[in-house]
């Protein structure tokens, strides 16, 4: 099977029943993507496929051949952290750090959804302009990513600071 992972062409010979998560972690040694619940409920395994966030534990690797897969390892460029990674540090958006890669990848996917005007459950006007990224709006949009340590306030603050700043530029 052939993949594009973090901008690099990768070839792997794995069983067609191999999940994308297991391909990344066990076959390609990209251990940044975490295995949490292995049932799609926690978001620790979130990666971006063609810019869309997915739970890699629920995805068969064979389904994603030839598509652009971005993991936490692919976010930093030229030795510099991604702005969202920097914001997580500044806002103490992690404690144990286990959920952090999935949170960051999910937030980047969420930003794309937001920029496209995709509403959330708490969006007041479904036909109106892109909603303001209030605390509740971000919390709802990130609800598929759990943090057992309770760093949600720092996570939301980091996301809001980064997304609002990037949207203004």
Structural summary, described in words:
- The chain has 169 residues and is of the alpha+beta class.
- 33% of the residues lie in helices and 11% in strands.
- A five-stranded mixed sheet has the order 2-1-5-3-4, with helices on one face.
- Strand 3 (46-49) and strand 4 form a beta hairpin.
- Helix 2 (83-90) packs across helix 5 and helix 3 (100-115) runs parallel beside helix 5 (152-168).
- The termini are far apart.
Compact overview of the structure:
This protein is an alpha+beta fold and 169 residues long. It contains 5 helices and 5 strands. Helix 3 packs parallel to helix 5.
Question: Which percent band covers the strand fraction?
Answer: 5-15%
- For this structure, what is the CATH class of the largest domain? Mainly Alpha
Low-confidence spans: none
What is the C-alpha radius of gyration, as a whole number of Å?
A: 16 Å
Q: pLDDT average, as an integer?
A: 92
Q: What's the CATH topology label of the largest domain?
A: DNA polymerase, domain 1
Largest sheet: 5 strands, mixed
Structural class: alpha+beta
**CATH hierarchy: architecture of the largest domain:** Orthogonal Bundle
Share of helical residues: 25-40%
Shape: globular
Compressed to H and E, one letter per element, the order equals EEHEEEHHHH
CA(first)-CA(last) distance: 39 Å
Q: How do the strands of the widest beta sheet line up side by side?
A: 2-1-5-3-4
CATH homology group of the largest domain: [2Fe-2S]-binding domain
The count of β-strands is: 5
How many structural domains?
A: 2
Number of helical stretches of at least 4 residues: 5
């Amino acid at each position: 099977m052939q993949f594009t992972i973090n901008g690099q062409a990768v070839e792997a010979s794995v069983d067609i029943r191999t999940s994308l998560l297991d391909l990344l972690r066990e076959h390609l040694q990209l251990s940044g993507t975490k295995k949490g619940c292995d049932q799609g409920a926690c978001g620790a395994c979130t990666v971006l496929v063609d810019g869309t966030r997915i739970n890699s534990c629920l995805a068969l690797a064979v389904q994603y051949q030839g598509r652009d897969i971005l993991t936490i390892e692919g976010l930093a460029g030229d030795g510099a952290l991604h702005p969202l990674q920097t914001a997580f540090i500044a806002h103490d958006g992690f404690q144990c750090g286990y959920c952090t890669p999935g949170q960051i990848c999910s937030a980047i996917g969420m930003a794309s959804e937001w920029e496209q005007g995709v509403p959330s459950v708490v969006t007041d006007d479904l036909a109106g302009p892109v909603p303001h990224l209030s605390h509740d709006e971000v919390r709802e949009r990130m609800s598929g990513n759990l943090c057992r340590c309770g760093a949600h306030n720092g996570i939301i603050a980091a996301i809001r600071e980064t997304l609002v700043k990037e949207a203004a530029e």
